[in-house]
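Student: Hello, beginner here. Can you help me understand the protein record under this note? Any guidance would be welcome.
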Amino acid sequence: MPASKLFIDIETIPGGTFYEGQLVDAVKPPATHKKPETIAEWDKMVRPMKEYEARHQAGLMAPFCRIVALSWALEDQDPVTYYSNDEGKMLKQFFDELVPAVEAESNGFRLQWIGHNITGFDLNVLWWRCMANNVSSPLLVHPRTIKPWETDKVFDTLYQLAGTNTKGHSLSNMAKLFQLEDRAPDIDGSLVWDLWRDGEHKLVAEYCENDVQLVRQLYKRIAEWCVK
């Protein structure tokens, strides 16, 4: 029995951990700024942006981020999407619903995880955040046990298209290149934290779900040209 194809995407924000404070504390004026008035001007004009960028960095680091939206789809089924400030509850709901869905689809627990940069980001974050929230599942994989070329277990559309030279290969750019249906062309991952803080939680979830639909379209477009 072939593995069930699981298309998945997550959205993350900074988790509010101690590490954000360390990143912010590391923000300093350039060493060339010696005069008090020059430093004061830098503190006023530049520091807020640099501190924001430092905190935003934590939102992309698995131990220190927090998942706020998760969307998945088995094969050609409609996506299932969650969004919540309760990360642990959301992850438990995901696996509680995924296990019977996979069993019904394939009469077993074999999965092929499919996503854009899934080996570089999503699987690692899922494992870390499940560990942080003490959420376990027979379907949860340790990211170091799957290599991006093991396509029976994982199909990373970014790796398949770009290898390690990923510049310019965002999912949005691939959607434009291959003329895929993108229902959220004006949103990208860099906006998620701001949108979430502004209360646009549903919009973040819709963007996450759109990425699942995009990655499924992309997979179908490129699979025959990629490593099997």
